[in-house]
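About this split. The held-out portion is used to measure sequence recovery: a designer receives only the structure tokens and must propose an amino acid at every position. Recovery is the fraction of positions where the proposal matches the reference. Here is one held-out target exactly as it appears in the evaluation file.
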């Protein structure tokens, strides 16, 4: 019995060893399986990430190709509005001090001016009248009244203390009074004021900078239902330094302006930089949408935009072939606005209503113009100005 138990114990020990070996083998198998799985997983991760990288490359190439071809007229955008971060407030709440025949605050010259509701009513009547005539030709009229630096950079309270009313309220009154059956009142004023902490008006000149014009252009795009081009979309940018504008003499040639001269920034349309304009004497010139005018004697660097104030300017974008056309009716504020239209239309016609004497009703019909845009600043909506625009649409 003793030997039998000893023999049995021996067999149990051998079986135990076999079980241990089997368990060890199983563990090793599991380890190998896990390792293979992990290696296989790494390979699949690399494989699946490759198409993502390829897709990114393709998207980038398409974007480049689109920019090379130049933007065409956009269809109405369906993008959901995004929540913008709150911009810094650049509004000035102090009354500027007299400086020559102007006013100065923080190194910037202002001209104190604001039309009243009577002038606004007369202007609106003109817009409605022109819009009704254009509607017969199935063209849309967009009206853009923009504030000067006085209206965009000084608080309403300061404006009212200085002249009795304020530009933002009058512009809002104009936009709300325009008959929407005949014209679209574009609220560019709100977008401009929202960015008044930026360099949107010159310190030494009565004009806006290109960024002031850009924010009006953004507002027009929203009103039209298209996507605005970003400033980063433009291939070529010019910067002209050392600008002293019209307010330099108005303020009595102050030294602080001479020591801190303005800079004129300009964006060249991607489609073309070529234009043709006809001056007041009837001479025809081949020119540029954006051109360095530094060598012109006694001229403003602001004239880098479309060659300055001429009765008629024509810009054809060779990258667009859909026959689209617009007319921009403007005073000098519209010069910096015009280049932003070029990449939206095959033909952009710029009319300075102060010098042009043609019949725009016939022009719209013969040139198949679908969009007419008026851009004017708050100091230029008076009765005589409105009459000049109305006269172009007999």
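Reference sequence for scoring:
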């Amino acid at each position: 019995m003793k030997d039998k138990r000893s023999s049995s114990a021996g067999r149990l020990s051998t079986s135990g060893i076999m079980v241990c070996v089997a368990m060890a083998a199983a563990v090793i198998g599991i380890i190998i399986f896990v390792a293979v799985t992990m290696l296989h997983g790494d390979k699949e991760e690399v494989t699946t990430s490759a198409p993502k990288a390829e897709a990114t490359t393709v998207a980038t190439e398409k974007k480049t190709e689109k920019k090379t071809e130049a933007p065409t007229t956009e269809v109405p955008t369906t993008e959901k509005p995004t929540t913008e971060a709150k911009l810094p407030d650049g509004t000035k709440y102090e009354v500027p001090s007299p400086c020559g025949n102007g006013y100065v605050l923080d190194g910037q010259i202002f001209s104190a001016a604001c039309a009243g509701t009577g002038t606004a009513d007369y202007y609106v009547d003109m817009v409605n009248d022109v819009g009704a005539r254009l509607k017969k030709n199935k063209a849309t009229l967009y009206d853009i009244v923009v504030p000067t630096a006085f209206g965009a950079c000084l608080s309403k309270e300061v404006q009212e203390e200085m002249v009795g009313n304020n530009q933002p309220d009058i512009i809002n009154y104009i936009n709300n009074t325009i008959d929407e059956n005949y014209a679209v009142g574009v609220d560019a004023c709100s977008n401009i004021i929202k960015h008044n902490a930026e360099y949107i008006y010159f310190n030494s000149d009565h004009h806006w900078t290109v960024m002031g014009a850009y924010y009006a252009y953004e507002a027009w795009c929203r009103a039209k239902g298209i996507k605005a081009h970003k400033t980063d979309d433009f291939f070529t940018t010019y910067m002209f330094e050392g600008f002293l504008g019209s307010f330099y003499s108005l303020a009595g040639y102050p030294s602080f302006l001479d020591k801190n001269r303005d800079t004129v920034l300009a964006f060249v349309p991607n489609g073309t930089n070529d234009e043709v304009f006809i001056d007041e004497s009837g001479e025809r010139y081949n020119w540029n949408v954006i051109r360095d005018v530094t060598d012109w004697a006694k001229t403003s660097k602001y004239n880098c935009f479309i060659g300055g104030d001429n009765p008629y300017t024509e810009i054809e974008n060779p990258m667009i072939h859909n026959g689209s056309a617009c007319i921009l009716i403007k005073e000098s504020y519209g010069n910096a606005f015009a280049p932003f239209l070029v990449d939206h239309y095959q033909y952009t016609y710029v009319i300075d209503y102060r010098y042009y004497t043609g019949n725009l009703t016939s022009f719209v019909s013969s040139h198949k113009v679908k969009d007419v845009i008026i851009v004017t600043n708050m100091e230029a909506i008076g009765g005589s100005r409105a009459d000049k625009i109305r006269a172009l649409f007999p």
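Annotator remark: DSSP finds twelve helices and 13 strands in the chain.
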